[in-house]
Structures are given as C-alpha cells and as structure tokens.
Amino acid sequence: MHSVFTLAIGLLAALSPASLAQPIEERQATDRYVFAHYMMGIVQHRTSSDEFDQEFGLAKAAGIDAFALNFGPDVSDTILGYAYDSADRVGIKVFFSFDFNSGLYSTSDPATVGNRIKAFKDKPAQLIVDNKPFVSTFAGPGLDVAAVESAAGADIFFLPNWYPGNDQTGTDGFFNWMGWYSDGNNNPGTIPPSDGDTAYINTVGSKERYMAPVSPWFSTHYGDWVSYSKNWVFQSNDLWFTRWNEILTLGPRFIEIVTWNDYGESAYVGPLSAQHDDDGHSKWVNDMPHGGWLDMAKPYIAAYKAGATAPTISEEKLIYWYRPTPKGITCSGDNLGKPPGWDLMTDEVFVVALLQTAGTVVATSGTNTQEFDAPAGASLYKLPLAVGTQKFTLKRGTTEVMSDTSLRDIVDTCACGIYNFNAYVGTVPAAAPDALVNFDAIASNVPAGYSCQPTPSLPIRASGAQATST
C-alpha cells in the first residue's frame, strides 16, 4: 500500500515550473505498451498460479500488455512465481516494480534488488523491451543501477518512478506515478496530471523515455488500525475520461494504469472478486465495483496502440459512475472526519457513451433527468447528483436501444458509519455481478454503535436505506 506523501519532495519541484493463444508481441506494431500496476502484497495468501488466471485473462482481453508487479522484500518468490506462471499460461507479460516506500526496499542494498531480477529475468513471461528485461520501481531515487545490473547478471531496461531533478544515470527513462490532480506537493489540489507529463518529458528529453500514469480515482480512509493511516481524496470526478483523451494526444511510448487492484486507495479497475487480503478497505470498497472503467478503457487502449487520437467503437455501451452519497452529508461517528480534498469533488453523475452512431443519452439521478445528444465515438456527460434511483438509457428517435437502472441508489446515510468517497461504476448493458471476497476484516474498527459486514448487499435502494447505527 503506497503512501503518496513519500513523493512530495521530488514532485514539488517537478510540478512547479484478444485470444489466450495469441502472443502478446503481435500487439506491438507501434512499439507502444500498456501496463497495469498490480499490488502483490495483498495476494500473498493465494496458493496456486491458477488464482491469477481470471484477472490476467481480463487484462489481456482489454489490451493490457503486462502487469507491473509491485512488491516489497516480504513478498515471496513463490507468490511471484505463481504470477509468472499464470502470465505465461494466459499469454500476457509481467515485470518487477520494486517498492522503495518506507521500510521496504532500500537504495543502499542494490544487490538484493539485482538478485531478485536474476531469479526471474529468463522466465517466459518476463517482459522484454529492446532486448532487455523490463524493470520499474515505486520511488527509490539514488539506486545504483550498475550495481543492480551486476547482481542481476544482465543489463535491464529500467524505467523507475523517480522524479524530475533526480540523477538519470543507468535509467532508460522515468515513470511518473502522479496521475491525479494535486497541489504540486502531493496533496489534493487543482494542478492537472498533464503538468507532470510536461515536467517529466522535459527531464528525460523524449516521449519515448517516459511512462505516463492513467488513473481513474484516488480515495482512502485508513485510521489507526494500520501503520499507514491516511485519509484524503484527490480530485477525480471525470478524470478517467479526460485522462485517456490526454494520453491519445500525448502519445508516450509507455503508459501504466494506476492501478489494477489497489482497493485501499479506490484506484482499482480489476474485479472485486479477485482473492485478496482485506486490511479494512472493504468498508469503502464493498458493493463498489469498478469493472466498467476497464470496459471504457478498451477502445482507448486500442486507439493508443494504433497511434490514433480518438477511439473507434466496436461495441456500444454506456459507462456511468458516481459517489454513493452527496459530499455534504455528516457522518458523526467517523472520527477520521471528511477526507481532505472532499470539497474538490463535485456532486455529479458521470456518463460516458461509446457509440457507433449518434443517439440520445437519457440520464436520471433521483429527481433529476437530462437528455444529451451524443455523437458517434466516445463522449462524456454530467448531471447533478441526487438521492434516489440512478437510471441510464440510450435512444435513437423514439426507439429505446438499451436501458438499465443501477443497483446502487444514492443515499444520504453513512454506510459503515464512515465517509465514503469511492465511486460506484456501472454499465449499460449491465455487467455480471462483482462481489467482494469476504475476509471479515470489514467488521473491525467501525465507529462505535455501527454494524458493518463485508457481504454483498446490492441492490441498495434509497427507500430502504437507513443509517447503520445499531
């Protein structure tokens, strides 16, 4: 679990001035790569490589080329081996993203980093770029790359998450983690991630040496039951749509989706059903699927790889998202309080139309209903968020092409007694249910007088919603 405040010093300076048998290499005609950040620390209780297959297959079908396996020294070679074996079987690639967050890997011990690369660099699923094993990091500026390569017994293609102003010796470019609006010092703010793109590209000298972040959301609400207590929300709103359009215009050689499965920071696009450990994040993740965001990304990924500046739509769909409550409600039992950045979030419902031909999008949020003339292609619409039913329809003339009512109404009560600034994401046509794995940790550390169980409770209807105080 990353604490993004560890990046503040570097970023302050920067932001101020398909089928399983198909080899992944066949999708690299433009030499552009799409990765997804994968948190290995929360899957350490998996017992076989088969337990990675569903996720890896979903990612491959979306056009993702490789997973960046993020981990610290505590993650075993056994669980890493499961990921590599599954990737080989599914036909996707993986690579290491060493986590230098506080207490994890140390820049003073490059040999440990190199030795782990050495143990996996020749596996069939290892991502190879420019004839070198691809390696990345979370943080870690100052690492002696030559010493890492000496221990690894190989030159590596190294794209670390270092910061403008850091020494680039031994690197092939930099990876920028900050895919959200910020204040330039890793706090919630209004500086767009595109400013980070500019700072990084100016530093490394080329879009070919830059890995850009693409993220849908960032909201976290940890208290003192964990060592990494943190409570904030970065301005997200319509970020997933606007950021993908920026990426198509920018056209860097590498992009990384941040993240596949960081449930604790609400940044996931992978399935809730994937087996993982729960450190209490289920209090704001339960009944909050994000799979629609991965659906929205598919035509954008294809367009990015083709060098296009707009996606071509092969499957018509509506993708919608919204927070489960208005931002102004009070959760009196939540001693963490509202997350900093809450005021930058808008009380809006967001709808993306992926259309082959023009149509009319009809969106209802509570008592608010609006119609939008939607052209062919991908387009974004917003309407004021209101308590009650959320319904979305596509029409052409007087013909209703498709329609669905969300399983989650917007309510004005505090589920689990806490502020929840995560997003609920749905699609029309509706996707299959995606229920959170139950590891029971959600029942701990909820405000006094509240009950909270990690069991699927959709549909949630405003007419029956009550504060969960017992």
TrEMBL record:
CDD domains, per database record: GH71
GO molecular function terms attached to this record: glucan endo-1,3-alpha-glucosidase activity
Pfam families assigned to the protein according to its UniProt record, in alphabetical order: Glyco_hydro_71
Keyword annotations of the record: Signal
InterPro entries with a match to the protein in the record: Glyco_hydro_71
Stretch forming the signal peptide: 1-21
Protein name (Swiss-Prot/TrEMBL): Alpha-1,3-glucanase
Organism of origin: Neocucurbitaria cava
Lineage: Eukaryota, Fungi, Dikarya, Ascomycota, Pezizomycotina
